[in-house]
Amino acid sequence: MVDYSALPANTPVLVGAGQITDHWYGDDAASAPSPQDLRRDAARIALEDSGAPKAVRDAIDRIVAVRTTPDSIPGAPQPFGRCANPPATVATDLAIADTENIYSELGGNQPQELVNELAAALHAGECRAALLVGAEATRALKAAVRAGMTLDWSRSAAGPQTDRGYGGALLSPYEIRNGLGAPTQTYPAFEHALRRRLGNSREEHMALMSELWAAFSQVAADNPHAQFPTARSEEFLSTPSAENYPVADPYLKWHVAQDAVNQAAAVVMTTVAEAERMGIDRAKWIFLHGHAEAKDGFVTRRQDLSRSLPIEKTLHQALRTSGKQASDIALFDIYSCFPCAVLLATEALGIDWRETPATLTGGLPFFGGPGNNYSLHAIATMTERLREQPGDFGLILANGGFLTKEAVGVYSTTPPENWAPVSSETIQREINAQLLPKPEQADGEITVSTYTVVFQKGVPTRGYIIGDGATGRVLARIAKGDDATLKALLTEDPIGKRANIEVRDDTNIIAGFA
Asked: I need a surface site. Which of 166, 210, 236, 319 has the fewest CB within 10 A?
């Protein structure tokens, strides 16, 4: 039996969770979901889930909204307008007064990192209760544009707001100039590097990715909140087709996160003292135990692209500060934008994903990839599952950028002893100390360590290689119109080969293979 009377009054606790998935796909403009409405509805569900919605609503004095995808891309088109103050709009919609309003920076790490931050703020007495909420309506946006509909997503409440902006740059000007870009264009660098370290041929790694994702899709098929609840076979996932076309080698469409979703999630956090005062049933309480967050440098400055130091170090810190080992954890949700993220995390944990499921939701390709907000759905689902399995522990890994920003939390209905915030300063210093010098433009030969070819409408259009030469790490792209090199990267495994690099107009260009 847990002696709740011995818990420090300022121990943070999660008391409500909610999520919603809307399958609207162009039926009529009147029923089209907006990000504002989705945030409101998920927050309302979280309040009701606490069992004391009025008391919780009256106690909330901080609202944090996770940044939407359109607000994360400078200059991104927003054809239906935008909400200027998402947290204040949620407060107005739910009649919550006098709140501190925060709009997060970008990154899929944000939901877990914000839970860690809010737990520390509650523990310090900086707020009484906090609402964390996020939503995406990318599916509705795309469908409405295709149908020529006119929607109005500009509804916004007035009030103070701390907008944390974009955060730091995820790619350097050097990387953008020489071939890196969108996630589907950059993650293949990690995937191929991991493939080579594991000793897999192209065919073997395709089979591995598809086996992993087939299991994820089965979880999504059984999840009422999944946007794409269809179980997909290994054969389908490994075979190019009209429904599963090449995106960027080695990925086909269903190997990557799917952003065409209408999804929202929310959680409510408070302290043990406030939860007792509000009369919230202790069976609802979920505690954060160990936690960590850390970030990596630019892609071309990482020593080993087949590993992720932030994933390894945050996982180890979260477990260590929980007093747990991976074998003590019953439930996992590992961020799953691309297969390598799951493969690297399960490797670091020392768990076999064939025996221990690595997702609670079905993952970003099949549950859905609601921008920066996916892991808030994982936290809401973890809350539901742990209430069904009191005493068990669950772990969530949230990832942002290009394996750039990681945040981990360990959860349980079992309360921690003398909870205190955990600092990640030591592991951050260790990661920073491993970064390579800044790469430079240089003619010469390099040994290829990874690469990709990017497709557009099924046609290979561009590509790059990363390798090491006399000047250090080098990133080089395929010259426009160089179909021979595109073909060579697709038909021959270039890893380990020597490549000639020429600098043309301040850009590294692949001039052939030795």
From this structure: 166
